[in-house]
Amino acid sequence: MHQHTHRWIYPAVLSLLVWVTAGESSRGQEPPKSPTTTPPASARAVRSTGTGLLLEPPLMLTNVTRAQFLEMAGTIGRHRIGRPWTQPVLPLPEPKSRKGQALTQTEVRDYMLEARRLFDDGESVPVSDIGLISTQEDVIRQPMLNHIAAFSNSVARVYLLVQRTATDRSWSYYSIVQDLTQRPVIDHFAELTRTGPKFEGTSCYKCHSSGPLAIHPNREDLVLDAGLAAALNEHIANQPLSRFHFPKDSPSPPPGKPLTLKACARCHDGEGDRNRLFQVHAHPIRVLVDFGHMPPDRRLKPEELADLKAWLSPDP
Ligand code: HEC
Ligand code: HEC
């Protein structure tokens, strides 16, 4: 009897699951989950750890429901987001023979425009979220909707960000192209305006100290496809060390002092994993440490926290 019940229920439950998943993905909402063993980085509980590093109270957007998030994110066009995927990074065609020379500005622009075209045509696999870093502090302090897609071939890693705040009407497009022909790799940043990519440096560097940033949603339910976010974050965490390219009309801001705290500099040293952090990067540092994302594997001890705080807010 027991066995019989099981045999009957099991396929029924399975087909119900299949039906639910298929229904969701055809509405462009929840794509099929990819199997993950450990909880993805981006799906970890996101809350302030009360370090006192934040300059403003943490903003949890408690009045934003998941349904509202999906509604706001969906105004980009439902067919463009929440798409099923097998590879988190979309392969781009290989260039014709090259001899190791750096990408030209035209090539960089073309990669940016191709990323935008693929997204607009509903052919990319973007992750959609309400981001943590840009909602905190005095930067935006309202829901910031992001769609992020990654592409690559043997000479370039290309990233696209399609973004708007909850109150904006239209979406803005940004891109990062990593030129893999050089060591260290060279990062190009641009806003994709109506007339084409406008290369920038000054403003982007304040947050993007090592090229593309991992995706960290404001809350664990404010991301569409946490499995895809985790896969992209792995791609980003394992990117080769890169150098920021500042266009002539958008130079490096004054960086301030480097962060030498061992708990950070052992990875952010400009040699192994990530580029050195400077005082100009105070904003992402405050947010990532306070929300427990950095260091990746532990919490800072009170003495370390005091050192970091002193470095962030030097006596005048
Ligand atoms: C206030 C900090 C901040 C500034 C300034 C900033 N970004 Fe970002 N950017 C982010 C964060 C945070 C993410 C990841 C968003 C998320 O968690 O969903 C991101 C993501 C991106 C992505 C998608 C790939 C990736 O890094 O994950 C691109 C492309 C991008 N930004 C381009 C730019 C460009 C170009 C500029 C300058 C014009 C710029 N950004 C300025 C914070 C910033
Ligand atoms: C074990 C190595 C490691 C340590 C230690 C570490 N980080 Fe990171 N950090 C990373 C990696 C990998 C990333 C990119 C992936 C991510 O953001 O999750 C990152 C990203 C960052 C970023 C975003 C800019 C970037 O490089 O992508 C900031 C800011 C940051 N870390 C600050 C800190 C601070 C402050 C500390 C010390 C309190 C610290 N990190 C300690 C490995 C480390």
Order of helices and strands: HHEHEEEEEEHEHEHHH
The 3D shape can be described as: globular
How far is the first residue's CA from the last residue's CA? 79 Å
Quantity of strands, as a count: 9
Residue fraction in strands: 15-25%
Helical content stands at 25-40%
Low-confidence stretches: 1-40
Q: Give the averaged pLDDT, no decimals.
A: 88
The tally of helices reads 8
| Biggest sheet record | 9 strands, mixed
Q: Which structural class fits the helix and strand makeup?
A: alpha+beta
Question: What topology does this entry show?
Answer:
Blueprint (H helix, E strand, L loop, with lengths): L1 H25 L39 H8 L15 E3 L13 H16 L6 E4 L13 E9 L3 E10 L6 E8 L5 E9 L2 E4 L2 H4 L17 E2 L1 H12 L4 E3 L17 H4 L16 H9 L11 H11 L4
Parallel strand pairs: 1-3, 6-9
Antiparallel strand pairs: 2-3, 2-8, 3-4, 4-5, 5-6, 6-7
Folded structure, characterized:
The chain is of the alpha+beta class and 316 residues long. It is 28% helix and 16% strand. The protein has a domain at 38-253. It has helices at 2-26, 66-73, 105-120, 202-205, 226-237, 262-265, 282-290, 302-312; strands spanning 89-91, 127-130, 144-152, 156-165, 172-179, 185-193, 196-199, 223-224, 242-244. The radius of gyration is 21 Å and the shape is globular. The N and C termini lie far apart (79 Å). It binds heme C (2 copies). One heme C binds at residues 209-210, 213-214, 236-237, 263-264, 266-268, 273-274, 277, 281, 284-285, 288-289, 293-296, 300.
